[in-house]
């Protein structure tokens, strides 16, 4: 496992790999790697000759009052996790390496896709995501990049950006990985108290119920969302930010009857911890992704 610290060094390594005819997979992360990240790394290792994992807590995607300073960091843990899953390189730049003095160029997906769901309450978040991901694509020269469905809006935004800008990279979506009790894996789960974590299981339970309802023939999206809200509201510590449905991957708002591939997404706070989760369903009693 080799740790690379600067964009110039990674770019030089990537150029050499490409000159040798090797394919490169990129797994962008903010570190504190868990089994969800490892599933992305394993997928990349299956499909590419070399896998690069970026570990960078990107300051431009955090808003005022968010957890930039307290976001969990542990490079030794990340090295072990990345190596065990099949990565060859970790790219761990400092903020000043990615955004040097005088930096003034940003990438913005300027459409409704960034103004709904998490974009409603996190202005500027997806500009920061699009900017850092574009930089990582350019620096790594990757053939493919791997993103989890848990951050479904992020995945959709990146897919749109790659399409709009004719970027020469394949985006590979990967399923949500969950704890044994159903909680979607997230580095922020470490913030939860024991009581909060127990009540947070209502998110995956409510989505699982919705999935079962769709498989059983339910097509009324408003009824499905009402049932999700009722299930989560039974947890006293849950503060629901949104429960929404939209077409995937266009993210066009979508209610009424379920007639196409649809994302049902939610964001809920437990104390200071904001959790997101989702399912993607379509009619004819057939699940698209877990």
Characterization of the model:
This protein has 290 residues and is α/β, with parallel strands linked by helices. The protein has two domains: 2-174, 3-Layer(aba) Sandwich (Rossmann fold), CATH 3.40.50; 187-279, Pantoate-beta-alanine ligase, C-terminal domain (Pantoate--beta-alanine Ligase, Chain: A,domain 2, 2-Layer Sandwich). Helix content is 38%, strand content 21%. The protein contains nine helices and ten strands. The strands form two sheets. A six-stranded parallel sheet has the order 1-4-3-2-5-6, with helices on both faces. Strands 7-8-9-10 form a four-stranded antiparallel sheet, with helices on one face. The protein is globular and about 55 Å long. 39% of the residues are buried. Residues 285-290 have low confidence and may be disordered.
Gist of the model:
The chain has helices spanning 7-19, 35-47, 75-85, 95-98, 118-121, 125-140, 152-164, 194-215, 221-233; strands at residues 2-4, 24-29, 50-55, 89-91, 144-148, 170-174, 238-247, 262-270, 273-282, 286-289. It has 290 residues and is α/β, with parallel strands linked by helices. It is globular, with a radius of gyration of 19 Å.
């Amino acid at each position: 496992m080799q740790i690379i610290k600067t964009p110039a060094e990674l770019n030089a390594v990537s150029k050499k790999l490409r000159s040798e005819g090797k394919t490169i997979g990129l797994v962008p992360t903010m570190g504190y790697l868990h089994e969800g990240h490892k599933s992305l790394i394993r997928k990349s290792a299956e499909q590419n000759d070399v896998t690069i994992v970026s570990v960078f807590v990107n300051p431009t995607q955090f808003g005022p009052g968010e957890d930039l300073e307290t976001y969990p960091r542990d490079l030794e843990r990340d090295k072990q996790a990345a190596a065990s899953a099949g990565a060859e390189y970790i790219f761990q730049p400092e903020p000043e390496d990615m955004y040097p003095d005088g930096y003034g160029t940003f990438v913005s997906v300027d459409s409704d896709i960034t103004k709904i769901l998490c974009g409603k309450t996190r202005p500027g978040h997806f500009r920061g995501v699009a900017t850092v991901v574009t930089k990582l694509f350019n620096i790594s020269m990757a053939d493919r990049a791997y993103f989890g469905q848990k951050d479904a809006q992020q995945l959709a935004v990146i897919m749109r950006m790659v399409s709009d800008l004719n970027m020469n990279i394949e985006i590979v979506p990967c399923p949500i990985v969950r704890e044994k009790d159903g909680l979607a894996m997230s580095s922020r789960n470490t913030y939860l108290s024991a009581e909060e974590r127990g009540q947070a299981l209502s998110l995956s339970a409510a989505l699982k119920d919705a999935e079962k309802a769709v498989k059983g023939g339910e097509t009324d999206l408003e009824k499905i969302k009402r049932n999700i809200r009722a299930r989560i509201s039974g947890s006293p510590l849950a503060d629901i930010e949104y429960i929404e449905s939209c077409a995937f991957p266009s993210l066009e708002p979508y209610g009424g009857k379920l007639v196409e591939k649809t994302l049902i997404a939610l964001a809920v706070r437990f104390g200071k911890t904001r959790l997101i989760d989702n399912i993607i369903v379509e009619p004819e009693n057939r699940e698209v992704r877990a």
